[in-house]
């Protein structure tokens, strides 16, 4: 699993002034059932 990579940094650079929350890395094979984790 590669995690979020540079996603958080890229968003922060692209969306200056935005509040970036903690990311949630969901492995592809678990994406279909990720609803409960996303809701948390």
Mean pLDDT: 81
Total of domains: 1
Computed structural class: mainly alpha
Q: How helical, in percent, are the residues?
A: 25-40%
Taking the sheet with the most strands, its summary is:
none
Describe this structure as you would to a colleague.
With 40 residues, the protein is an all-alpha fold. The chain has one domain (7-39). Helices cover 32% and strands 0% of the residues. The chain has two helices and no strands. It has helices at 7-14, 35-39. The longest helix has 8 residues, at 7-14. The protein starts with 6 loop residues before the first helix and ends with a helix.
Topology, please?
Layout: H1 7-14, H2 35-39
Write a short abstract of this structure.
The protein has 2 helices and no strands.
Offer a few descriptive terms.
40 residues
């Amino acid at each position: 699993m590669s995690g979020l990579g540079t996603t958080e940094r890229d968003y922060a650079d692209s969306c200056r002034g935005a509040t970036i929350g903690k990311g949630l890395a969901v492995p592809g094979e678990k994406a279909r059932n990720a609803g409960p984790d996303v809701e948390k």
